[in-house]
Amino acid sequence: MLKLLKLSYQALIERKLRATITIIMVVVGTALLTGLNGMSAGLNDYLIKEFSTLGANVIIVIPGGLRSGSAAKITDQTAALVERIPGVVLSEPFIQQVLTVKSSGKSITATLVGIDRSRLTTIFPTLRLKEGRFGSQNEPTVLVGNLISNPPGEENFIDVGQVIVLEISSVVEGRRIIETRNLLVDGVLDYMGSQGMFIPVDRMVFTSTQTANAFLGRGGRYDGLYVVTENADIVDAVTNELKEIFGGGAEIFSSRSIIRTIQNITGTINTFLGSIASVSLIVAAVGIFAALYTSVLERTREIGLLKAIGFPKLSIIQLFLGEALLIGVIGGIVGNIGGIGAAYLLIGLLSGNNETFNEFNTQSIQTFNIQPIFTPDMLLTVLLFSVILSLIAGVYPAWRAASLDPVVALRKE
Q1: How many Cα neighbours within 13 Å face the side chain of 376?
Q2: Are strands 141-144 and 175-189 parallel, antiparallel or unpaired?
Q3: What is the H or E stretch that residue 341 is in?
Q4: Fewer Cβ in 10 A, N or C end of the chain?
Q5: What is the residue extent of each domain of the chain?
Q6: What does residue 384 show for φ and ψ, rounded to 5 degrees?
Q7: pLDDT per residue as tens digits for the range 318-342
Q8: Which range has the top average pLDDT, 112-121, 145-154, 265-274?
């Protein structure tokens, strides 16, 4: 077998240009598959980490029905009703509003959240305090996220013990009205890495529900409800109970349901893109077929000579399949390496465009932190796929070569 592989390798070397072009076709197809699979795995890991800020046993209820005017009203009474559902350990309403935070003559856009701050670690299990304290419901103070206290490019924009200005603007009867509130910072959160997407804890300012209700004039109505269950296993059951209570007047979701939905969407996209990459490998297989078939025609006398000196059909078949095997193995290995490099290069180019923070403007910075993930199983699967396609492409040319009549082949000029 090793001698036949050596002969196959020599045959490829004799036809360097054709072999190189064929291998390049395999490399391109394999690199596409490897790169897409790695980035897909990285995206999946990124989504799971993003939503790990929210406990797996936490459900979020947001007013807003599918029909106009059907949005549910969330009040203290609603929260008390939800807390009586079997398996629910906490029903915490919250108020939420995007506004401007001003300090030391500079400003930054943040999300004000009115909530019982003592319950934040139950809702966000990975939440940690960097300095200061969480504060209580009876105190008109604020707890700020890490990127509000220390925005990129700035040191100590907001410190514990400092008074900040919360500013919100609205339009009433054609006039713009600006309302402000001065509040003391009594705590700063540690960095969570939510990157301003989905649940941007790092860019939130937390205060008591009473303070937020008075400042924003909500009249005792809330913007949402965090529901914490005993464990993640009963999340779906509690979700069904919540749907019974709110009907079509609220959107109800959990971190698990969000991840599941997004994974279904990305899975469909990845399947589509993977199909395109597979087509590239199939085109490469056609190239292998053409190259080997041409090789058979060019080497007719050589094949006839081999058969005349006693080479059996199986050895002839193995000789040409050996060429296909070498093309698949070389193309697969180089393609895997190329796919890994291309994925990291693409991520580097994308992340390189997000390192700006212009004078605390109203746009929150987004950091692209998706990292491709390549496992040995994934790389081996892609390699085997390229090798199998190469062997399939080489079957007919190998059979054709083995079927040549040695007398006719030796007459070939």
Answers
A1: 0
A2: parallel
A3: helix 313-351
A4: C
A5: 2-50+265-411, 73-246
A6: -60, -40
A7: 887 888 889 889 999 999 999 999 9
A8: 112-121
**Mean pLDDT across 21-36:** 88
Matching residue, tokens 């966000």? 124
| Separation of alpha carbons 143 and 137, rounded Å | 12
The answer to whether 382 and 33 have CB atoms below 8 angstroms apart is: yes
Band (187; pLDDT cuts 50, 70, 90): very high
**Is it the case that residue 227 has pLDDT exceeding 80?**
yes
| Cβ-contact 326, 8 below 8 angstroms | yes
Residue type, 315: S
What the block records as the tokens of 71 is 């949005």
User: Please, what's the largest Cα pairwise distance for the chain?
Assistant: 102
Tell me the angle at which helices 2-14 and 16-51 cross, rounded to the nearest 10 degrees: 110
DSSP 61-127: EEE--SSTT-PPPB-HHHHHHHHTSTTEEEEEEEEEEEEEEEETTEEEEEEEEES-GGGHHHHSTT-
Within 10 Å of residue 369's Cβ, how many Cβ atoms? 15
pLDDT digits (tens, 9 = 90+) for 342-374: 989 888 776 655 443 333 333 344 445 678 999
Angle between the N-to-C axes of helices 16-51 and 313-351, in degrees from 0 to 180, rounded to the nearest 10: 50
DSSP count for the chain of H helices, then E strands: 12, 10
**Distance from C-alpha of 145 to C-alpha of 130, rounded to nearest angstrom:** 10
Q: Cα–Cα distance between 10 and 366 in angstroms, integer? A: 54
Could you tell me which residues come within 8 angstroms of residue 50 by beta carbon, excluding any fewer than 6 positions away? 194, 195, 197, 198, 199
Beta strands 175-189 and 250-254, pairing class: unpaired
User: Residue 274 in contact with residue 385, Cβ under 8 Å?
Assistant: no
Nearest to 7 by CA among 404, 403, 311: 311
Angstrom distance (rounded) from CA 316 to CA 48: 52
Q: What number is the average pLDDT over the span 20-29?
A: 88
pTM for the whole thing?
A: 0.63
Q: Which two tokens stand for residue 14?
A: 């004799």
Count of other CB atoms within 10 angstroms of residue 48: 12
Q: To the nearest whole number, what is the mean pLDDT of the chain?
A: 82
Cα distance between residue 395 and residue 393, in whole Å: 6
